[in-house]
């Protein structure tokens, strides 16, 4: 009888296939979620941290986390509205390649029969990967990619929990304004130094636009090829332009190479103002040591914000005890993304894609239930979390310290950066 019913479902076409996936996952008491991340290649270090965050979130949902009662699913035992069904993560390595990201997403949907996708960190990979999920009508939860256009495509199945670059770049210019008003530090000459994929190119456009609108001089605009093997000529051009502040968007390998080249060429602007990514990877500080100090980077998370939200320290301690490192802005968002997706699947009480999509639309998680310094998670009609926000942190003595907004700061800003030959 069960076999006959299943055959009947299969005759219903694409909708039937989706329902069959859902019935299969439920029958096995297992919720398969596809995770598309850079597990090899230039961003492998970042990918490894995000993979760890996903595995921690799944472990909490499946097995619990004692002593953290305010964290959703901390009691363990799987998803209660699906009779304790456990989360099973199926990982795929996109290697930083948009085409591989797309093909791996299709494999996860058609062969692994996942009920949802989470990923994919790099905005250009998220763009192609999510197109596949949209075509197959499978929910796609994006925790980290910040290209503003990702939620401007009219997609029905795409949801993003992080804030985006439109907000983050506006934050940079609000920071400059408050820096003058509250600290007496006047910034006028800027330069941009960004990688040339979707993320870097869109960031450059917005930075140039806002600089012109707000009366700043853009002394140089440089986009360099992603995964470059050297940046000497580009940084020589930056140095010749003599900006006060370099606004930089680089993934890990490029960020490390840029800092080494700045030092080699003796280039010391007043500040390097980074747009997250490589500058917030644990490996950035580990590789550069003291040479990473004084950089200011856009962030969404910092351990020193635990004074405002006990969950930040409690969950970070769990992560640290397991992986011997703190969360980063990337991995904390990834953790939050899976917890959000699990919340939707649980409220849907179903693994049917449309039910999960509907539950995501109705998401309204308060800020005291997440580890991010946000008001919460609530999606608009484009699938963008309207409660996301950003902060600025500065690396001092090898640690990230919140320095803006000034009313949230845990340490005074160091400005300008000391010259290379004046550092201890």
TrEMBL record:
The keyword Transmembrane helix does not apply. InterPro entries: BCAA_transport, Leu-bd, Peripla_BP_I. Pfam families: Peripla_BP_6. Residues 30-394 form the Leucine-binding protein domain. Residues 1-27 form the signal peptide. Keywords: Signal. Belongs to the leucine-binding protein family. This is Amino acid ABC transporter substrate-binding protein.
